[in-house]
């Protein structure tokens, strides 16, 4: 009575463990990248909302929202650049790396070489996190989203085999 | 997982647990792994969404590195 069920269970576990190992690793990487991407987009939207009175229509290196000065986005900290501009530069790199990583992951399989852009992406978002940590508590929602992006980014890296 | 598949599992699970073949936790993990298993096509569609979103935000971020245009 029980033996058929043992067979079914063994067959099920076997197929899950062998046939779809590549898929599950890829799935973990893709879904984690999606989580990271969603959080990073939200973080970027929050940073722009802190910087601009009308983020939908404004852009550039000068913040127009008075809140920007309060949280520290106007502060000049490196090479004469404001935190807002430094963040924008890192966001450019992070989103560029995300595009490349997502493109590579479409054909990537478990056991393939680690996509180098995943490492680059981790570096970019870690720098964004460090900049966000230097802002005032008024930017705490922004910081939280960046932290989510970094955490999910670490899962992507682990899934594709970054040591 | 379809309703029909769920019903099959609902009949099988008590037998497996009572016979000591698998714990409920193990079975739950197994079912979850089936439920969450996505095809390559679905994963590639998610990748396409990531690419679209990241491309849009990359353009916005690039604009923020450039000198601001006067606000009308």
Overall description:
The complex is a heterodimer of chains A (163) and B (72). Chain A has 163 residues and is mostly helical. Helix content of chain A is 71%, strand content 3%. In chain A, strand 1 and strand 2 (81-82) form a beta hairpin. In chain A, helix 2 (21-51) runs antiparallel to helix 6 (140-160), helix 4 (83-105) runs antiparallel to helix 5 and helix 5 packs antiparallel against helix 6. Chain A is elongated, with a radius of gyration of 21 Å. The model of chain A is unreliable at 4-22 (pLDDT under 50). With 72 residues, chain B is mainly alpha-helical. Chain B has helices at residues 3-18, 24-35, 40-65. The longest helix of chain B is centred in the C-terminal third of the chain and has 26 residues, at 40-65. The A-B interface holds A 1-2, 5-6, 8-9, 12-13, 16, 20, 23-24, 26-27, 30-31, 33-34, 37-38, 40-41, 44, 48, 51, 58-62, 64, 84-85, 88-89, 91-92, 95-96, 98-99, 102-103, 105-106 and B 12, 15-16, 19, 21-22, 30, 33-34, 36-40, 43-44, 46-51, 53-55, 57-58, 60-69, 71.
What is the arithmetic mean of pLDDT of chain A? 88
pLDDT < 50 stretches of chain B? none
Percent strand of chain A: under 5%
Q: Which structural class matches the secondary elements of chain B?
A: mainly alpha
Q: How much helix, percentage-wise, in residues of chain A?
A: over 70%
- Strand arrangement, largest sheet of chain A? 1-2
How many alpha or pi helices of chain A? 6
* Helix vs. strand class of chain A: mainly alpha
What's the helix-strand series of chain A? HHHEEHHH
The N- and C-terminal alpha carbons of chain B lie at a distance of: 55 Å
Q: What Rg of chain A, in angstroms, do the CA atoms define?
A: 21 Å
The biggest beta sheet of chain B reads: none
Q: What's the β-strand tally of chain A?
A: 2
Number of helices of chain B: 3
The assembly state of the depicted protein chains is heterodimer
Anisotropy-based shape of chain B: rod-shaped
Radius of gyration of chain B: 24 Å
End-to-end distance of chain A: 47 Å
Strand percent estimate of chain B: under 5%
* Low-confidence segments of chain A: 4-22
């Amino acid at each position: 009575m029980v033996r058929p069920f043992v067979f079914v269970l063994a067959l099920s576990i076997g197929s899950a463990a062998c046939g779809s190992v590549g898929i599950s690793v890829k799935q973990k990487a893709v879904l984690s990248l999606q989580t990271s991407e969603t959080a990073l987009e939200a973080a970027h939207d929050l940073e722009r909302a802190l910087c601009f009175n009308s983020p939908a229509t404004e852009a550039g290196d000068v913040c127009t929202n008075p809140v920007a000065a309060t949280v520290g986005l106007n502060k000049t900290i490196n090479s004469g650049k404001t935190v807002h501009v430094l963040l924008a530069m890192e966001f450019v790199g992070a989103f560029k790396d995300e595009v490349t990583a997502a493109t590579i992951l479409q054909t990537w399989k478990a056991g393939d070489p680690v996509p180098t852009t995943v490492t680059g992406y981790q570096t970019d978002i870690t720098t964004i996190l460090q900049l966000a940590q230097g802002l005032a508590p008024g930017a705490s929602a922004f910081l939280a989203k960046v932290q989510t992006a970094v955490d999910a980014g670490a899962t992507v890296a682990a899934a594709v085999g970054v040591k | 997982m379809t309703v029909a598949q769920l019903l099959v599992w609902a009949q099988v699970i008590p037998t497996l647990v009572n016979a000591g073949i698998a714990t409920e936790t193990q079975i739950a993990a197994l079912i979850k792994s089936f439920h969450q298993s996505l095809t390559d096509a679905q994963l590639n569609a998610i990748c396409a969404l990531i690419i679209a979103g990241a491309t849009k935000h990359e353009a916005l971020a690039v604009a923020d590195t450039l000198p601001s245009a006067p606000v009308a």
